Write the structure tokens for this entry.
Amino acid sequence: MHSDEPGANPGTSTPATLVTGAMPVHIACVMDGNGRWAARRGLPRTDGHAAGEAALLDTVEGALELGVSWLTMYAFSTENWRRPPDEVRYLMGFNEGLLMRRRDELNDKGVRIRFAGRRDWRVPRRVLRRMDESVALTESNRRMTLTMAFNYGGRAEIVDAVRALVADGVPAGKVDDKAIRARFYQPEQPDPDLVVRTSGEYRISNFLLWQLAYSELVFTDVLWPDFRRQHLFDAVGEYQRRRRRYGGVS
Ligand code: FPP
């Protein structure tokens, strides 16, 4: 990273300075900025995604160090099919390769791998197979659940839940928060306490729309391939300085 880049000089939060009793239970990340990271180096966008793998693994390590129970990473959105076909093809193969390369070490660390998103015809069968294998391999792990939001859209998840309500014949009077949530991709997952988005973009981009209702949002200018656990610790430091009110008073 160039030292004059925003976010180049990380803060000083460490697992020791953070408040153990106020750790986020669930952190969700929007891994943005791979393309710009590559462009700045005169590289193809896909090289930026490849460089993002180290960031992802270091973030997992950092979250484990902090004792975070749930980590959700936005890996491919229902809108990302609009990217150039070559990039989409690359991302499918990249995500499959990432699972092949990393699932054993994640399993060894006690990480349970899960996926959130639509299993539609656009996701190659091969990729679905790797996803299923990774879920099965890590199913009994409990140290942390790593959810890859893949072919995921917050609106699609709500639409799918509504379809399930209708298919289940739930009468209008019985439709409430609980009934909707029970039909999400991971009903037992707590809502994110903290969402981190990299690369200086201040938006949610269809990520976990329902679940983010009261999440704390932290935005950083760091491009995803440069993101490391120190940045995660700093985001948690900022989270711990916030006062959450959930619509009430503190
Ligand atoms: C949302 O922004 C960002 C994502 C859905 C993340 C995309 C991440 C990758 C393609 C790389 C995955 C990397 C690893 C290491 C697995 P957006 O660009 O979809 O939305 P926007 O157009 O609103 O910015």
